[in-house]
Design brief:
Blueprint lengths: L15 H17 L11 E6 L4 E14 L2 E4 L21 H16 L13 E7 L9 E15 L5 E4 L7
Antiparallel strand pairs: 1-2, 2-3, 2-5, 4-5, 5-6
Helix pairs in contact: 1-2
């Protein structure tokens, strides 16, 4: 699904699918950077299956809360993030929240025949449940899953991959 480039100033992707994957990769980079993840918190896994040209991304244990009727995510790895400058879902103020809302938006689009004429192509999922282990500061826990998320792998200059768009632009 085509999007306006720069709705999140830190990202130049032109499709919703590519932006979602780029944000997931950025969150993984933060997780691996022990300067900002000094506790070694492990909230996500991202795997590339070269043979099938798909990525799987699993994020668990994101602490969330409700503010003004909207779901907000507590950023697990505090680092600079330029807030979104568009309307929902491109208006979040931290990376984890932006990623969650992109996945929610994409998940909803996957159920629209006008945007996804191939119903078998449903790759995004999320859940929000009570935080039974927390101290009450963040009463909800969120998980995000991208399953068999289609990518295009390019071996021209080393190996790179980008998300393959599969949703139609409204």
């Amino acid at each position: 699904m085509n999007i306006t480039p720069g709705v999140y100033p830190d990202f130049s992707e032109t499709t919703l699918e590519a932006l979602t994957l780029a944000m997931g990769r950025r969150l993984l980079q933060r997780q691996k950077n022990l300067t900002i993840n000094f506790t070694g918190k492990d909230v996500m896994d991202l795997t590339l299956n070269e043979e099938d040209s798909v990525v799987n991304l699993d994020i668990d244990e994101l602490e969330t809360y409700i503010e003004g009727g909207a779901i907000k995510v507590q950023e697990p790895f505090v680092d600079a993030f330029e807030p979104g400058i568009g309307s929902y879902p491109f208006n979040q103020t931290n990376l984890a929240s932006a990623l969650l809302h992109l996945v929610v938006h994409q998940h909803i689009a996957e159920f629209s025949f006008e945007l996804n004429p191939e119903p078998a192509k449903q790759h995004c999922d999320f859940s929000i449940r009570p935080n039974v282990r927390g101290n009450g500061t963040y009463p909800l826990i969120c998980t995000i899953t991208l399953t068999d998320y289609p990518v295009i792998i390019d071996y021209t200059n080393g190996m790179t991959s980008t998300a393959q768009p599969y949703l139609l632009t409204p």
